[in-house]
Every structure is written in C-alpha cells, then in structure tokens.
Amino acid sequence: xxxxxxxxxxxxxxxxxxxxxxxxxxxxxQQPLLDSTEQDSVYEVLSSINSAIPWRTLFPDDLCLSAxxxxxxxxxxxxxxxxxxTLPQTAHVTELNFGYVSDYTxxxxxxxxxxxxxLLFTSFKYLRKLFFYKCFTETTVxxxxxxxxxxxxxxxxxxxxxxxxxxxxxxxxxGNFTNLRRLVLTGNGVSGNIPDRIGDLVNIEExxxxxxxxxxxxxxxxxxxxxxxxxxxxxxxxxxxxxESIGNLSQILKLDLSFNGFFGxxxxxxxxxxxxxxLDLSFNxxxxxxxxxxxxxxxxxxEMYFSGNLLGGHIPEIWEKLGGISGIGFSxxxxxxxxxxxxxxxxxxxxxxxxxxxKLEGEVPEELWFLEFVNEINLENNNLSGRIPLSATxxxxxxxxxxxxxxxxxxxxxxxxxxxxxxxxxxxxxxxxSDIPNPVLFKEYNSVSSLSSVQVLxxxxxxxxLGFYFLLLWYxxx
Length: 478
Description:
With about 475 residues, the protein is an alpha/beta fold. The chain has helices at about 5-30, 35-50, 55-60, 170-175, 340-345, 390-400, 455, 460-475, and strands at about 70-75, 90-100, 130-135, 140, 155-170, 180-190, 205-210, 215, 230, 235-240, 255, 260-265, 280, 285, 305, 325-330, 335, 350-355, 360, 375-380, 385, 400-405, 410, 430.
C-alpha cells in the first residue's frame, strides 16, 4: 500500500519543489553575458583611448551589466534552436562613445595620446553608434580605410567631433553603411573630395562635414539622398557652382554651405526645398545676380544668411509670405537703395537682422523700431540719413539692440541714447533744427488746420494771413 509523506514533510517537499522550479526559471531567463572575445576588445579599445586608467580593474565584471558610461549593449535573438524550440539570446556591444562631454554624458575621457584601435572596425559587428569627442588633439591619427570591409553593416551613427589631428581621406571611411542615418565629421583634419558613393547612403538623414579641409565640387550623387534632412558643408574649401540637382533634396530642413569658395549663380532649384527652414550661403563668391526673388516662395524659412557675397542690387519686396523669419544676414553684399518698410510690417518674428557694410541710403523705416522680438539689428556703415524716430518708451530697447554707427547722415534728438555699448544711440550726432520736420501750426483752429508751416511761409498771401491772425489773437486776449 502506497504511503504519503506526513503533512509537515509534504509541505517541505512542495516548498523545495517550488524553489527548484523558481530557480530554474530565473536561470532560464538570466541575461546572457558578453562574449569574452568581444569584452577583451572593449578593454583594448579603452586602453588605446586612455591607457592611464585601469579599465579591467575598475570594471572587472561583464561589461553589458556594469560598464563605463558610453559603452552600451543590447540583446539579440539568434537563429531558432529547433531541438529545444527556444530562441537563445546573445549580448553584443551596440554603442561606443568616447570623450568626456559633460557631467550628463561622462563618456570615457580621452588622453592626448589617444589612438584609433583597429579592433573598432573588426570586433563589433552589431555596432550602431561610434562617437569620438576631442580624442585626437595632439597625436596624428589617420582615418581608416573601411570602404572594402564589412564594418558598419549595422552602423546608424558615425560621429567625430573636434578631433583636429584626425587626418586622411573622407573616401576611406565611407564604407558599407546602408543603415547609416547620421554622418557627423566636424572640426577634424579630414581632406579630399566627397566621394560619389556617398549617394549609396540611402537612409542617411544628416550629413555634417563642417570645419574640415575638404575640397572639390558638390557631387551630383548627393541628390539621390531622398531622406536627407541636414546638409552642412560649411567652413571647408569647396568651390565651383552649386548644382541645380541640390533642389532634389525635398526633405531637407537645413542647408549650410557657408565659408567656402562656391561661385556663380545661386541655383533657382532651391525653390523646390519647400520645407527648408535654415539656409546659409554666406561668405562664398556668389555675385552680381541680386538677392534671389524665389526666397519669397519658401514660406517655411526661418533663417537666411547671404552675407559676404557681392550679390548687389536692391533689397527685394519678398517679405509678405515670410512671416516666420527670425534671422536675416545681408551684410557686405553691395546692396543699394532703401530699406523696405515691408520688412518691419511682415517680419513680426524677426530677432536678428544684419544689413551692415552695404550702400543703403534713405531713412531707417520706423516699422523696424517696433519689432517685438528683436535681439540685434545692425545697420552700421551704410549711407542712411535722417532723424531716428524714437520716443522715450522705446529708447532703452533700441539702444541695446540697434547698431547704427558709420551712417554720417543719421541723427538723434537730444536727451535720447546712453553709453551702454559701442553701438548705442549716444554715438550718433544730435539733430539740428533743420533735421527735424516742422510741425503743423495752429492745428486746433479750423481756419488754418490744413496749412503746414511750409505752406504758410512760402507765399506772400500766407504771410499776410499769418500776420492778420496774430493781430486778431492779440486783440482778443487784451
């Protein structure tokens, strides 16, 4: 006859069974460890970035569970195990961020002798982001040639910022990056042309190559990048014409080609960039074609900068549909004529306006003084003239934010201005009486309310009328 354990021993048996089951469940769901070979590669890379820090001692455990900030892992399901009908997980490094940025992003700090370890491009096949900030500043480091390797198959962000001793060709680092979304190489020593195969980065959303030593033309292949949102090629040595094909980048929000050697005519195809918000073509060699009129057909623009190009001509009347503009840079462009009052009427969100170092003339439109969000309006070194139409209510605001020096014909009433800054109104000359318009005389009397002082004094009949009026006034007041 079968026997059963007593109630006490039965309870212990059940408890032991549950604990065993729970333990097995915990083990079965435990996160996998980083592969030892991949972990060693991380240590080697960290040592090449800063050998003075004992990385293995400080972080001896699995780096996917306890790692320096900037080393990021993720977990992946491998191919199904048909024997056990399970999907085994594996751990892999997906982000490597180097170079201390701030207390909020305290990535492993780089040393002056940092090097670029070759394991970066062979040991991390799941890598999604590679980031270096101020790592290569003294020791020369050559950009690796990974164009023919399998590196970067899963890479989404490649970022090198402020690494002046990182030198070499851009073509070498454009590899098998079919998933790349951000390519940011700014403030480095990278040189050469932009390779045509940059057009193969079909998923790219940002290309920032500013402040390098790049040369040549803008390749036609850039026009293939239908998802591109940001293109920044500023502060390089590019030249030639900007191709009309750049107008094919219909999703672009920011286009910055400033501080290069581009010349010729600004392409009309830019009008196709209907969601463009930021346009900077300043300090190139575009010339003699005037401010493009098609800008008035780009209603999403918030900032436009053309300073340093001798475009010449007048400031066009294109502002009616550009009410969202907050910044305009039109310095040193050879502009002539008057400042359109319509700029003050329609550009109600304007914060920044530079029209300095041109040949503008006439009065400063009063509409500019009443713009609500102005931080700076620079009108220095033109041929502007006339009285600044100010009242005490607006003096403090205008005095801090308007720069008017270098316009010998401008004047201001006595009592306005201060000495807060170099561009203050106090630097302007005081108006003579001849600069101040004569008021309408005797406005409260119907008999002469329609006559200005100029009209009265310009004819003998007016003088007689004026004399008779004063005689009548004297008689009444006796």
